[in-house]
């Protein structure tokens, strides 16, 4: 049946992309929370935060982009949950289609939806005065890191999407992910944090990813941060993919 | 299409067992469904009807026993079984955000059929959904949703169809619409395995009735055979009262549903 994998995935992808274009509100909702945070931090707290960079939005955007993805993938889990619950998942599984196509369609949809949200957030940041002198290669590198990060979190989201008993359960897992940037260098430099907090902040994935993106935007040398960031993303992706696939196999057999 | 050895029954179940942890749901189920017939699997809630249907449609693995569907073994030839069947599960498996037509086109594409648009239009016509075809399914009534659900199962004319409690939760008109659709199916030679907890539904639709109770089939026969299990009928004079269903349908007008669902079938003559 795997000869139909690409065709079936494309058909199912068309289906879930229609879901997105017909309920743009989910993408807007996904983007509103990070945009709200960005407004609040830039115009309320930002003036009092000394980051060493010339404008706070400049400093803040990378972290906000990660929060955008973290809140976006809760919809991935939610959409998958709805399919599981509504019976259409069973219909697909009882049809002669490539069995993994159902999952891949959701994954690619998640990638597309998150990229749209990310573009919206970047546009708002530009309106708020974000400027980058980075050239095309640096922007592509930023896009690459964000795509890898989105894929990793998407496969993570597949697990609650397949196993949750309620819609709240399907999306609740994303709350800690949304909170994680607060304990990193996303909002404030880690230098002023007390010892244990600082140790945690400096060794969790968000800090290295944020630092790498920030360096790319400001055309600073990325140093080792980018390798640590890539290692985190690839590692998380591999682990999440493995567990998601195991969960899926268990569900369909 | 798949090859069909015609002597064999369309569905053959022998010694089927399934437990969920300590709970034994199926404890050795045997039954056959002859080609082109309707078997009603009757049982109360939790009797294991849905479990049986899920095993027959390759969604669940059995603990023991053999199941042949269209001559293929569900455990070792799942892909061939899936080519031969369609499942209409307990909850209408339709996409609420897509239109009725888009739902049918989706299934036709996934079955790798040519001309999905024409197949969709034919089925919309056959199930009296042409006018609603462009509308989002979330605006459909329960009966329309079920009809679309069954129409989606007919895409590609699979020789065997599983209907798991197709009328649960429907109003009387919706029920009649679905019954008519099921009878039409059988008229075209499709084999139907129907589960239900409504005795009148089994009586109305089925050629044979199998009663699943505590994990086993306790009776399997035609309605006439089942009736013979009880002492012969005594003649009593009882005033014929209209049932509440008669009254309800008379008041709200069953004609409207009759007019909409009685079209002849067209799409499946060329199928097999």
TrEMBL record, chain A:
Family matches, as InterPro entries: ABC2_TM, ABC2_TM_bact-type, ABC_2_transport, Nod_factor_ABC_transporter
- Lineage, top-rank taxon, reads Bacteria
Q: Which UniProt keywords apply?
A: Antibiotic resistance, Cell membrane, Membrane, Transmembrane, Transmembrane helix, Transport
Task: State whether keyword Calcium applies.
Answer: no
What topology in the membrane does the UniProt record assign?
Answer: Multi-pass membrane protein
Primary location class = membrane
Which family is this protein grouped under?
Belongs to the ABC-2 integral membrane protein family.
Protein name per UniProt:
Transport permease protein
Please tell me the species this chain comes from: Saccharothrix tamanrassetensis
Q: Please spell out the taxonomic lineage of the organism that makes this protein.
A: Bacteria, Bacillati, Actinomycetota, Actinomycetes, Pseudonocardiales
Automatic annotation (TrEMBL), chain B:
Localization per Swiss-Prot or TrEMBL:
Cell membrane
Keyword ATP-binding among record annotations: yes
InterPro entries attached here? AAA+_ATPase, ABC_transporter-like_ATP-bd, ABC_transporter-like_CS, ABC_transporter_ATP-binding, P-loop_NTPase
For molecular function, the Gene Ontology terms on record are:
ATP binding; ATP hydrolysis activity
| Keywords recorded for this protein, A-Z | Antibiotic resistance, ATP-binding, Nucleotide-binding, Transport
Q: Which GO terms describe its cellular component?
A: plasma membrane
- ATP-binding is among the record's keywords: yes
Q: What is this protein called?
A: ABC-2 type transport system ATP-binding protein
Q: Give the classification, highest ranks.
A: Bacteria, Bacillati, Actinomycetota, Actinomycetes, Pseudonocardiales
């Amino acid at each position: 049946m795997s000869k139909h994998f690409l065709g079936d995935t494309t058909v199912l992808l068309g289906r879930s992309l229609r879901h997105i274009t017909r309920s743009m509100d989910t993408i807007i909702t996904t983007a509103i929370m990070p945009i709200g945070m960005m407004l609040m931090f830039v115009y309320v707290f930002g003036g009092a935060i000394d980051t060493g960079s010339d404008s706070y939005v400049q400093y803040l955007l990378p972290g906000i982009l990660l929060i955008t993805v973290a809140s976006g993938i809760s919809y991935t889990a939610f959409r998958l949950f709805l399919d599981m619950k509504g019976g259409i998942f069973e219909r697909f599984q009882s049809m002669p289609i490539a069995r993994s196509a159902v999952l891949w369609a959701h994954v690619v949809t998640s990638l597309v939806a998150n990229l749209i949200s990310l573009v919206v957030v970047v546009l708002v940041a530009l309106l708020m005065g974000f400027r980058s002198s980075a050239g095309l290669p640096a922007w592509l590198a930023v896009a690459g890191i964000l795509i890898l990060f989105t894929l990793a979190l998407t496969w993570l989201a597949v697990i609650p999407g397949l196993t949750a008993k309620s819609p709240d359960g399907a999306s609740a897992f994303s709350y800690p992910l949304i909170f994680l940037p607060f304990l990193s260098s996303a909002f404030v430099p880690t230098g002023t944090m007390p010892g244990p907090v600082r140790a945690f902040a400096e060794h969790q994935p968000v800090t290295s990813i944020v630092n790498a993106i920030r360096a790319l935007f400001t055309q600073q040398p990325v140093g080792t941060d980018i390798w640590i960031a890539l290692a985190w993303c690839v590692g998380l992706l591999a682990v999440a993919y493995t567990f998601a696939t195991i969960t899926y196999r268990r569900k369909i057999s | 299409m798949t090859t069909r050895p015609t002597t064999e029954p369309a569905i053959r179940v022998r010694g089927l067992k399934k437990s969920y942890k300590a709970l034994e749901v199926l404890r050795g189920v045997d039954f056959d469904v002859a080609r082109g017939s309707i078997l009603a699997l009757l049982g109360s809630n939790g009797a294991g009807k849905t479990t049986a249907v899920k095993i027959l449609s390759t969604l669940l693995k059995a603990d023991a026993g053999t199941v042949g569907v269209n001559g293929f073994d569900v455990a070792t030839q799942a892909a061939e079984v899936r080519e031969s069947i369609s499942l209409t599960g307990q909850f209408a498996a339709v996409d609420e955000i897509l239109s009725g037509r888009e739902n049918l086109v989706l299934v036709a594409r996934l079955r790798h059929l040519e001309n999905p648009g024409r197949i969709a239009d034919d089925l919309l016509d056959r199930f009296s959904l042409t006018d609603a075809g462009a509308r989002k399914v979330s605006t459909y009534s329960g009966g329309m949703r079920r009809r679309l659900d069954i129409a989606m199962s007919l895409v590609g004319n699979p020789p065997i169809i599983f209907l798991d409690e197709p009328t649960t939760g429907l109003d009387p008109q919706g029920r009649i619409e679905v019954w008519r659709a099921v009878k039409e199916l059988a008229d075209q030679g499709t084999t139907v395995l129907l589960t239900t907890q409504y005795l009148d539904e089994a009586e109305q639709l089925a050629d044979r009735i199998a009663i699943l109770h505590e994990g086993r089939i306790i009776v399997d026969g035609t309605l006439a055979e089942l009736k013979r299990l009880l002492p012969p009928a005594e003649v009593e004079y009882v005033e014929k009262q209209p049932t509440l269903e008669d009254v309800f349908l008379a008041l709200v007008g069953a004609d409207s549903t009759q007019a909409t669902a009685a079209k002849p079938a067209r799409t499946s003559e060329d199928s097999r």
